[in-house]
Amino acid sequence: MSITCTYVLDYSASEIARLKLNADVIAGTTRRLIRDSGIQPGMRVLDIGCGVGDVSILLAETVGKLGRVVAFDREPRAIETAQLRAIEAGHEQIDFMVGSDNELPEGPPFDAVIGRCVLVHQTDPVAMIHRAANAVRPGGIIAFQEPALQLQAQALPTVDLLVCAEHAVSSVSRALLPHYDVSGRLIRCFEDANLPTPYMTWESVVGDHTSPLWHSIAMLYLGVQPHIKRLGLQLMEEADPDTFADRLIAAAATLRSQIVSRPYSCAWTNRP
Question: What mean pLDDT comes out for the span 250-266?
Answer without folding.
Answer: 97
